[in-house]
Structures are given as structure tokens and as C-alpha cells.
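sorry for the late reply, my laptop died twice this morning and i had to redo everyting from scratch. anyway the thing you sent over, i finally got around to it. pasting the sequence first so we're on the same page, its 199 residues, then the predicted structure underneath. double check i copied it right bc i was rushing
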Amino acid sequence: MSDFKYHRPSNFPPVVKNLIIINVLIFIGQLTITGLTERFMLYPILPHGLEKYMASSEEGYYGFHPYQIFTHMFSHSPTFFFHIIFNMLVLWMFGRVLENIWGPKRFLFFYIICGLGAAALHLGVQYFRAEQLWQAVQSGDQAGIPKYRGALGGALGASGAIMGIMAAFAYLFPNTELFFNSVSISYQSQMACIGIRGV
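ok and here's the structure:
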């Protein structure tokens, strides 16, 4: 006798549901608690000299803190509502399929690893750009300072983890047709995932 049991896939599996709830609660907190967005945003790791320079400047630079590696994944822009709506919609669309196949533990592990990988890549690129900014500041290059000023910008949102979810879905189901209600065109998942992230 076989021990096989059929389990109907869930439309709202537990990890996807809880991730959406956490993101929405933190978003509400960002709207109501002053300064929460700045504390949760992932700021770049700066060269020591530039960090001291920023601390002494009048700009009030908040700076990198290790906990931001995790908190930025659950925060979204409080002024751009489309940011959280899009990320949570994509998490539900693709994440529920992956969680139903992989199970909650494996899906959560993958989600966190994608978010941490995106954070590491962001920190690496921003550190390189911050070194260029520091060289411009030290040399008094007035044209270079505005050019590299973006190195001080932080990262906010679940987009790194969401992109990992989309890439996994496109890899596992490359020929799945996706239908969008507002547009009566079907796309294969690999092309749709590339197009959606391009928006």
C-alpha cells in the first residue's frame, strides 16, 4: 500500500503570507514612526576617512549598521506606494508556487539568501563608488563630488529577494504562460520576469 497523499497547493502558503504581513506592518510603521525608514535603510559601508568626514558634516549622515542588512529587506519607500504593492504582488504570484513545491523552510531559506546576496552586491558596489567619492573629496574635485554622490544612497525594499524568486520561477518553469488581466497577451515566464523587472 502506498503512503502517497495528495496535498492541494495553497493560494496563500504560510511563509508567503507571513512575509507579506511583515512587509505591510513595517510599511505602516514607516508611515507612522518618524525616522524608521532611515534606520531600516541599508546604507553603504564607507572608507574610514569618508565616514569621519560625513559624521563631521552638517548633513547628518545616518551610516551603516549591521542590522540594516536584514531590515532593508522588509522596508519600502513610504512615498512611492507602487514599490510595496508591486513587490508583494510578485511575491504572491511567484512565491506561492515555489513555496508549494519546495516547502516553507526551503522557500524561506532561498528568499533570505537572495535578499542577503543582493545586500552584499549592493554594499560592494557602493563601497567601490564611495572610494571614488572620497578620492574626489580629498583632491577637491568639484566636478567629481556630484558625480559620485550617489554612493551615499541607501537601499530599501525586498527587490533583491523578489528578483531571486522571479529568477527561480523562470528557471524552473521557463515555458509557463502568464496572463495579465489588463492586457490580453500571454508571456512565457522567462520573458515576463525579465520584462517585469525592467519596469
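Residues 166 and 193 are 6 Å apart (CA to CA).
thats about all i looked at so far, will dig more tmrw
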